Amino acid sequence: MKIVMCASEAVPFAKTGGLADVAGALPLALEEEHHEVIIVMPRYKSIQDSKFNIKRFKSDISYSTTGKDIKVYFIENDAYYNRDNLYGEKTGDYPDNLDRFSYYSKRTLELLKEMKFKPDIIHVHDWQASLIPVYLKNWYANDAFYKDTRTVLTIHNIGYQGLFPKDQFFKLGLDWSLFGMEGLEFFDQVNVLKGGMMFSDTINTVSPTYANEIQTKEFGFGLDGVLKKRSDSVFGIINGIDYSIWNPETDKYIAKNFSVEDTKGKLSCKEDLQKFCNLPTSKDVPLMGIVSRLAQQKGFDILAEGIDEICKMDLQLVILGTGDIKYHQIMEDMVRKYPKVISLSLRFDDPLAHKIYAGSDIFVMPSRYEPCGLGQLISFRYGTIPLAFKTGGLADTVNDKNGFIFDNYSRGGLIDTIKKAVAAFNDKKKWEALVARAMKIDYSWEGSARKYVELYEKAKAG
Q1: Of 3, 93, 212, 348, whose CB neighbour count within 10 A is largest?
Q2: Is residue 108 helix, strand or coil?
Q3: Could you give phi then psi for residue 5, rounded to 5 degrees?
Q4: Do both 224 and 282 map to the same domain?
Q5: Which residues are bridge partners to 205 per DSSP?
Q6: CB 428: neighbour CB atoms within 10 A?
Q7: Residue 1 CA to chain centroid, in angstroms?
Q8: Does 215 lie in the same domain as 137?
Q9: 462 falls in which pLDDT band (50, 70, 90)?
Q10: How many CB atoms lie within 10 A of CB 34?
Q11: By residue range, what is the domain housing residue 424?
Q12: Do 124 and 196 form a contact (C-beta atoms < 8 A)?
């Protein structure tokens, strides 16, 4: 099958979040399944020739290679992409994001024709690539080149929709008839993600539970009605993990490598993490880790409500990430009050993230909603037991046999589950069995890629 992966970011070239992990890793797994894959993305300022061995394809198109032989084509336009960030500054999104990503979408479809790469599937991700199915079904409806091409749209987080004022619609070059209920109109604004949802052949999101949740008022962010209409074409596939990066047997950032056959190194990793975070070294105190954005969506509202009580328990807590200033301040106050219990690192720090996954006993993810979640999948691999709220991908992957899950989203629900986890940790024999069980769980991309191929076949079958 010939597949084009269209995303605004992909590892190792550009990344702000989980979208880049999927757009970078899924093509590699598809290549292993003997499919012909190319990636098309914008050429940002950070994508340097020296780092990625970039070559010239056309005057405004360059390319690099990933995997064994996957070509990654970069659409160049300095006025749009030669900036310090991908989507905006600290003050907010770039005001011309509609221009930037409509240009990317148009140029992608032109490029495929210029290359004579006739795809079976164009797989688009999130709102930034959602205009591709819109243009395909409207501008190219009678084009023989794209006659057999089908589109799959993956929604990574429906909260980000690409909303723009109505008076910018003309920039898209589309007929005004498409600014309506059956098109891109959304409460008198342009909604790019809605356009992708209306015109793609198949829609999926990054977990089966989240695929159902976004068809409800609570989690649909106003688009639940559109998804309900298309419910026969909405699917959920759990993301995979790149085990070449997240593997305790080979991880270069951790104090001592370990495996499910020999977990002794995990204790060395715990001691190393405690020292690194200036916490008392003790193998008998349960160490809880959090690698997260400090935001309400990630459960920091209920964590903040219960943090004082949590810090009085016999445990340690290590938090890494940045987010809302409100939660920065609450956690900083707790560090001053309980310096031997809680460690806070308000930054992005990849080596420390690896140390936390390897050295913690329990990995805490109390997210109010979580489309897939990668943290719990990584923590399984490192024998760090996830503690999560029952939502989205967390509900699909964490259960009473491999972790701790609560369905009452409240301070009390979180605290009761932490108490349960601490009690379980103190039963050493049962805990060792739980760790071994978690480490054997397989969330490699191989399994997810096969499910995506099935989804592509569904899209092709119509």
Answers
A1: 3
A2: helix
A3: -100, 115
A4: no
A5: 155, 236
A6: 9
A7: 25
A8: yes
A9: confident
A10: 7
A11: 264-442
A12: yes
Nearest C-alpha neighbor of 151 from the set 173, 130, 128, 177: 130
Q: What is the DSSP secondary structure assignment for residue 41, as one 8-state letter?
A: E
Q: Which residues does 355 contact at the CB level (< 8 Å), separation at least 6?
A: 253, 254, 255, 269, 272, 273, 276
Asked if residue 282 and residue 216 are part of one domain, the reply reads no
Counting Cβ atoms within 10 Å, is residue 311 exposed (0-12), middle (13-18) or buried (19+)?
middle
Looking at the structure, do residues 184 and 312 belong to the same domain, yes or no? no
pLDDT digits (tens, 9 = 90+) for 341-354: 999 999 989 999 99
355 lies in the same domain as 329? yes
Pairing of strands 92-93, 121-125: unpaired
What residues have CB less than 8 Å from 409, skipping those under 6 apart?
302, 368, 389
Q: Is residue 253 part of a domain?
A: no
The DSSP code sequence of 371-404 is SS-SHHHHHHHTT-EEEEES-HHHHHH--TTTSE
| pLDDT 10s digits, 133-168 | 999 999 999 999 999 999 999 999 999 999 999 999
**Which residue, among 461, 462, 460, has the nearest Cα to 122 in the 3D structure?**
460
Q: Is the pLDDT of residue 17 over 90?
A: no
β-bridge partners, 36: 2
3-state secondary structure of 310: helix
Tokens of 227: 């998804």
Rounded to whole angstroms, what are the CA distances from 417 to 195, 438, 441? 41, 18, 22
CA atoms within 13 A on the CB side of 333: 9
* CA-closest candidate to residue 297, choices 226, 373, 396: 373
Query: Are β-strands 92-93 and 88-89 bridged in parallel, bridged antiparallel, or unpaired?
Result: antiparallel
Q: Count Cβ atoms below 10 Å from residue 107 Cβ, excluding itself.
A: 19
251 occurs within a structural domain = no
pTM over 0.70: yes
Nearest to 73 by CA among 40, 34, 116, 25: 40
CB 302 within 8 A of CB 290: no
Burial (0-12, 13-18, 19+ Cβ within 10 Å), 122: buried
The 10 Å CB-count burial string (b at 16+, else e) for 43-54 is: bbeebeeeebeb
Same domain, residue pair 198 and 329: no
Distance CA 374, CA 217 (A): 25
β-sheet bridge partners, residue 363? 289, 386
Amino acid identity, position 200: S
**Number of Cα atoms under 13 Å in the Cβ half of residue 462:** 3
